Amino acid sequence: MDNSIKQCLYCDKKMQGRTDKKFCSNHCRSSYHNAVYGNRTNYMRRINALLLRNRKILSDLFVLQRKGTQVPLSELYIKGFAPQHFTHQAKHASKTVYTYCYEFGYSYVGKNAVKIIQEVNIESSLL
Ligand SMILES: [Zn+2]
Question: What is the pLDDT of residue 1?
Fold first, then answer.
């Protein structure tokens, strides 16, 4: 028979009482979760920071971009843009593919410039 003595998943201390208890203390619970998920969380945090930085750069340049003009790619890189990180891509009616960081997207105009756009409806930016 199960005498309902369990061990803490983190420190192996024996516990009595509620049989659904997995940890002897809040400290052990958070230490366990940090050990199991900590690296993954850090990885996601770093990616999210890069995506947010890209978004900020596109947003800033979008504001500066005059209607009908293009932004030199070098402007993005000077600010630390990381093109390998983006949220999604969408092909517009013009068959131009835009690469997005959240609601700000860009497409290449030639080799050295981009056109930046801001999407308002999320539905219209799904490929
Ligand atoms: Zn414990």
Answer: 44
Q: 33 C-alpha vs ligand 1 centroid, how far in Å?
A: 12
> Is residue 21 domain-resident?
no
Instruction: Look at residue 4 and tell me whether its pLDDT is greater than 80.
Output: no
Identify the residue whose tokens are 């003595």.
5
Average pLDDT over residues 43-70: 91
61 CA from centroid of ligand 1 (Å): 51
Tell me how far the alpha carbon of residue 37 lies from the centroid of ligand 1, in angstroms.
17
In a domain, 114, yes or no: yes
pTM for this structure? 0.70
In a domain, 121, yes or no: yes
Domain presence at residue 96: yes
Q: 61 near 116, Cβ under 8 Å?
A: yes
Q: The tokens 């800033």 sit on which residue?
A: 60
CA of 9 to the centre of ligand 1 (A): 7
The residue that leads in pLDDT, 64 or 103, is: 103
